[in-house]
Amino acid sequence: MEALSAEPLLEAERLALKAGDRWLCCEFSLRLKAGECLVLLGPNGAGKTTLLNTFAGLRLPAAGSLRLGGRLGSEWDRTALARFRGLLAQSRPELFSSSVLESVLVGRHPHLGRWGWEGENDKQIALDALREVGLSGFEARDVLTLSGGERQRVAIAALLVQAPRLLLLDEPTNHLDLHYQIAVLELFRRQLADGRAAVMVLHDINLASRYADHVILFDGRGNVLAGASEEVLREDCLSHAFAHPIVRIEQGGRTLFMPR
Predict the structure, then answer these.
(1) 219, 40 contact by CB (below 8 A)
(2) Is 58:4 a contact under the CB 8 Å cutoff?
(3) Distance of alpha carbon 38 from alpha carbon 40, whole angstroms
(4) Domain residues for 56?
(5) What pLDDT score was predicted for residue 7?
(6) Residue 44 domain flag
(7) Rounded-to-integer distance, Cα 29 and Cα 51, Å
(8) What does the pLDDT look like over 133-149, one tens digit per residue?
(9) Nearby residues of 250 by Cβ (< 8 Å), 6 or more positions away
(10) 248 close to 257: Cβ distance less than 8 angstroms
(11) Is the pTM higher than 0.85?
């Protein structure tokens, strides 16, 4: 197991986002270290995916600075950046037929030379990832024949074989039933123990409460509250952000949040 470093894998300083003339979030700062999980929470259209894409380097912030592994985006070599951070996108349309194994092996491309081909070691890494997501025996299946939940797990397996230090996950539980929602989030929790960090977009407040160390809560009106999970996940803050009264319940040693 890789020793956890005190050096932040993700660091934002007075970051702010804008879409057209609309401010998605005001300035905030954060530091995310190995072993930690940050959850982005808030109503639809508030800017959670936009912020995740900004963390991935796919767009620039309107203000502030962002560092990955202590470096600005402009200081990264593209291949090295692809090895450092990996993005699980919210939607991934399959435009052509391919086997499950071929789809998962795409995640190994940052680790191959320009003209390199996947070897037996890469295939074994892909098979191990498929086992982790409960898809052993699916290697030869055409991805176009899979259900939405199965395709989601294929995408997660491709991210696992990429093996980035920083996991950027846009609705990782999308299309998954209850069993696989928990299985996948527990899988990512084990990844954090190996020296990684994760940023997740979630819609379920209770899953955020269960897995987040830090939370950025959007209110959909340009404001965010960023901090430790227990500081942000409060009845008043959640009720304001979601424009509906939310109550906190202690049950069986766990904290649950329910609409009033």
Answers:
(1) no
(2) no
(3) 7
(4) 1-69+165-260
(5) 84
(6) yes
(7) 13
(8) 999 999 999 999 999 99
(9) 256
(10) yes
(11) yes
